[in-house]
Amino acid sequence: MSRKDTLKAMLTRRSEELPGGNSSPEPVSAPTTQVISHVRSGAVGAMGRSLGQIANAAERAKALVASGAAVVEIPADKLAGSFAQDRLDDEGVEFTTLYQAIKESGQKSPILVRPHPDRQDHYQIAYGHRRAKILAKLGRPVRAVVQNLTDEELVVIQGQENSARKDLTYIERGLFAMTLEEQGFDRSIIMSALSMEKTQLSRLLSLTKSIPKNVILAIGPAPKAGRPRWTALAERLATLKNASQLDEALADAKFLEADTDQRFVRLFNAIAPRKPTAKITKSIVKALAGQKIATLERTSTTLALVVDAEGSLEFGEFVAARLPELYREFEDRKEQPN
To answer: How far apart are alpha carbons 35 and 31 in whole angstroms?
Structure first.
């Protein structure tokens, strides 16, 4: 059987599962759909559903979206985001580019949603959050495919879609993984959602947890900062002795006005270890008559002679002019035998 026939047979089988109003190949008004029985995290194992089944259901849903079948139009105010946040708010260059494209050419590909588990006649987004946000700003309905998805199926397809498009930054993937873990999802589900191995996931979670969430949210997605730079930031935060140094950096006006990548750099530099202030010892140099003529300032590595401008400036110029001669005399003395 060809791939085309396989997809056709798969879509035919799944069409019987679609909510009412989700069978027309052309966009129609939002369907009236009864709230589905919502399978919470943990219940899947008890019902005998395997990770493979969950991933396959997610793949079938993605195939339906890709095929363009069963697209409906839903008012933007009927849509809610996923219960697992995977994107930090940041309307940067990519968002602006997508906004202009949709504004000028319309929505090219539908998003994927499921009937909202808690709100009648509302829908929860599996993926397509930015498109939905932009269409809401434009006051336009959102073209979507509606699928009955469990929590597990939703987060797997949500994560895999973003991973396939390399759409999430490193720290956004970390927050997504941490959110799923906090909500009780099994590690196998999180690994499938993010398409990563156990060791990679453990490293991602460990790093994300080592950085205060308010710091991550303040910086934003920072697409140019990968794992090494976030690791370096975490190390600086761990050794930071003065908490006010971090607070001042986060409240700085230039930090707040910068874009997300610049915010990362500014914060990273602001919390760099500060060199300890050198201890300065001062002593007064007086003439034989008792008047002050200069101050000697000593540190562990420097010696400075400071001549007061008032009363001793001419003396200072005299000493400065004789410094080469004085240095030669010093060198001659070093060469003489003891």
So the answer is: 12
Phi, psi angle pair for 138, to nearest 5°? -85, -5
pLDDT at residue 237 tops 90: yes
Phi (first) and psi of residue 24, to 5 degrees: -85, 135
Report the distance separating Cα 81 and Cα 87, nearest Å: 11
d(CA 2, CA 151): 32
pLDDT at residue 6 tops 70: no
* All residues at 6 or more sequence positions from 128 whose CB lies less than 8 Å from its CB, including other chains: 110, 111, 112, 113, 142, 144
Kindly report the number of other CB atoms within 10 A of residue 330's CB atom: 9
Q: How far apart are CA 244 and CA 153, in angstroms?
A: 43
H helix and E strand count, the chain: 15, 8
The sign one gets for the Cα dihedral 83, 89, 93, 98 is: positive
Q: What is the DSSP string of 97-157?
A: HHHHHHHHH---S-EEEEE-SSSTT-EEEEE-HHHHHHHHHHT--EEEEE----HHHHHHH
Q: Which residues of 307-319 are buried (b: 16+ CB within 10 A; e: fewer)?
A: beeeebeeebeee
Q: Which residues contact 85 (CB under 8 A, 6 or more apart)?
A: 175, 176, 179
pTM assigned to the model? 0.54
**How far is it, in rounded angstroms, from Cα 115 to Cα 190?**
22
DSSP-derived 3-state class of residue 292? strand
pLDDT band at 233 (very low <50, low <70, confident <90, very high): very high
CB 231 within 8 A of CB 90: no
